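User: I'm putting together a teaching handout on how multi-component assemblies are represented. Below are the sequence lines for each component of a complex, exactly as they appear in our records. Could you produce the 3D structure of the whole assembly as structure tokens, so the students can see both representations side by side? Please keep the chain order the same as the input.
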Amino acid sequence: MGILDVFKRATSPLSRRLAPLSRRFSAQKTEEDIFDDEFQRKLEILVMVSKRVFSGAMRAERRSKKTGSGVEFADHRDYTAGDDFRYLDWHAYQRFDRLLIRLYEEEEDLSIYFIVDTSSSMGFGDGEKLRQAKRLCAALAYVGLANLDRIAIVAATDEVSGRMPTTRGKARIFRIFRFLKGIRADGVTDLGDAMRTFVAQHKRRGLAVILSDLYDPAGFEAGINVLRYNRFEPFVLHIVDPREAKPDLKGDVRVYDCETGEEREVTVTAKILQRYGQAHEEYLDEVQKFCVSKQVSYFRADVNTPFDELILRVFRRGGFLR
Amino acid sequence: MTFVGLPLATLLQIGAAAGAVVVVFYILKLRRRPIAVPFSKIWERILRDKEATSLFSQLKRLLSLLLQLALLALMLAALGDPRMAVNLVESRNIVVLIDASASMKSTDIGPSRIASAKERVKQMVRGLSGSDRMLIAQMDAAVTPLSTMTSEVSDLEAAVAAVAPTDAAADFPKALRFAADTLRGLSRPEVILVSDGALGAASDAGGIVHTGDITVSYVPVGTGGQNAAITNFAVRRYPLDKSRYEVMLEITNTSDQPMEVELSLLGDGTLIDLTRVRLKEKERLPRFYPNLSGASHTLEAKLSLPEGARDTLPADDRAFALLPERRRARVQVVSAGNMFLEAALLLDEYLEVTTVAPAAYPGKGSFEVTIFDGVSPPVTQGSGGLLYLNPTGENLPFTVEKEVTDNDPNNRLGFDEVDTKSPLVRYLSLGEINVGRAHPLKGLKEDKVIGKSYRHGALLLQGRRPGNKFVALGFDLRESDLPLRIAWPVLLLNTIQDFVEEDTSYISSFRTGTVWNIPAPSSAESGTLEMPDGSKRPVPIKDGRAVFLGQHAGFYKLTTGVPGAEETSMFAANLADVTESTIGAAQDVVIDGKSAGPVGEFKIGVRREMWVYLLIAVIIITAIEWATYHLRVTV
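Assistant: Of course. Below is the structure of the complete assembly, with chains in the same order as your input.
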């Protein structure tokens, strides 16, 4: 430690030096309370609401995009050698003089994978982004369990740092709680690498819900694309903290990335803050545009909005549970 | 350029230390506060544009360091107190005497001579070199130092601002002596006289004022102009008809050209007389106004030019006087019967005489005068002044010696020596008085012998004992030819008027610039004097006289006694000084046989202390740095 560091430490306000300590205590207390009785009561309500939304649907008979031996027609494709003759569409052959195979939507148990970003940026500040991600994950998982879906949860940074195996049934929700409580924000985001590991570990395709702030130095597209290319159905739940768009900075500072440690010197003025806010908004829009262009379901989850309200919005948007 | 402040070696040491501190702080300033952000890529996006200007930014930061070092260099230079070599002279000690006499109120140069003088002195103060010291003193009837010997410009300017003109003549010798005493033993002593030159000779009772090696400089103020003045103004009541009075005044044309003036006389504020007078050049014209009546208290004379115009010095165009108070004196005569005494008392109708037999003394009431005719009972309170005629027996405040008779034809008994200055015997000739038999009187050392016989001693004695004045005549009237002479009633009335403070020497107005002895109750030790401008100040009273150095013309009011039982008396004061009214400005003043020289060595508007300018430069540069920092030019 150089003399300048000593000087800086000596001149820094006491409150700032004690801030990390107080944040840690605050975070611990919040982790204990995150899945309290009130939370669980809200989950029950969400399940009832989901039943109304999905009324008429049969248990374990969600339509997957996987075509196969179901009863509901999905599409045609050209016949190739080895195809089952029983699925040849003779009417089509008569009209177009082409051998076409009829495809049906395969009806099977839906596998839902929750990929929770646990990089340092998710715990930035008071860690509200990670808490919100945990709440959303738990809520959606519970709804899925209630609908007899297969649920698995993965904690990801630049690797798969934690994994809860696939499970079924409402009773397993407490296991999910325990798993989520054990997650800590630490590490560098690299969803590309993490998703490659994920797809290697999970052969059964399904819905992959990414809960992340998508602050990926390697580019947020990489992780989503890996899922797309491996025939998973990605659903992006973008966790956003509006306070990050308006940082409380002033004067000459040296900003460094909380994950990579990369530094930039900047003199923060009102004009710079305004430009930063614009850049932050542009980044969020960029993510959204990318998802829309790639037909990836996208939902922006504000940390200031209660999780149950967010879940309902997801339902209303015709989310992944339909 | 020479540094007269800190030595160069010290400056270099301070510079090295302070420069190191500046550089260290500069480096500390460059060590920016580290702040964690969740995603630095967003910051990179907005800072991309700034990359192009990083070189310029570095230059600006270097500029900031250079600016701070420049500030340090300026401050070090200020500490060194640099001076131009031509200005590096030994420090002077200067006493500035500003003439605040009445003539300085002249308006021949606008707005007035005193204002012009103050402005000239202010310019000198601003042109003082850093090592020079100056003292400002006001010169009028007294000398009033208004500052210490200092080089503080603000103190000196405040002192100049405090100079106020008076209605009195300047006591030039006293002022010069003050300046010489102040400058004794100091380096390069100098007296600067700022005046119109109407100062008179630089000598007084102590002789010619010697200034020695003190440099005396003279700053003449004024150009001269036309002026007429009231140079004398007096009023008195007629002794035997106190309802009437006469006024004497004198007007003077001090200029070299004839003037026509209007002279107004006002009694109690009412115009009594208005006369147009033509004055020749330098003419002094006395005027009498006999047998006037009407006014009961105040008189004022005014002089003006025709058509209401004013001359150059308005201060001497007005004069004030008070009529002596008209009242009856209560006189008690303790006598077995004395026709000569009673007849003389009948001459003054303003006497209220009560005659009592010696056995019936004291009479009822209180009296201002008690006359003991051949008797000397114990004096009771309320007897006032005591006049003893042919005193004998005990209870006397003096000693009566054995009887002497006029038995030597070669040396007749009578007044061989008379104190002609005494108001008791004013206008009297007592040398021819013949006395048949007398008892010489012997008083205390402080008693005054008014008339005495060489051979036998005092025959007329005046003195004061606690509570009473007394006058004693050492013979019986009937045994002299005094009652047959006009001197007797005059002596008697003079004595009574002396007791009641209403003598013929009544001063209808005081002259400004002198120490006034104002009649006051003898029991009082202090009083309050209300000035013509309404301000009040305490005055001491000694032996029945309030002592005050008056410098302003107008009516004054003296109040004595405790609240609720105050006694108030008024009096007037006038300039009445031809020298002051002669307003021609002198271009030369001679002191100790030498002419005062012109003033030099004052570079008006330029302080030769460069450190002041260096500090101003520091402040300006700091302000620029502050502004550019907050406008984000140098960050």
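A couple of points students might notice: Residues 270-293 of chain A form the longest helix (24 residues). Confidence is low (pLDDT under 50) at residues 1-29, 54-65 of chain A.
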